[in-house]
Design goal:
Number of helices: 3
Largest sheet: none
Radius of gyration: 19 Å
Strand content: under 5%
Distance between the termini: 24 Å
Length: about 80
Amino acid sequence: MMALTTGTTYLPQGPRWRLTLSLIIGVKLAIGLASQLGWAVLGIYLYRSGTEPRHLVLINRVMGGLLAASAFATLV
């Protein structure tokens, strides 16, 4: 849906639409890869540090706080 929305919103109706499409694809690819790499690194770190009970409690509290903050930001 994001790609479809971006394409219909930002693509011009002229002869240069292919260039703009290439730029949009490149930007989305770069942002997507960076985001996925960040989540992968975070997942590896959490997996390695999640073996001790005190770390699990800390991870759960931090994730719960982030979830509450994102829910609050959505509602406001």
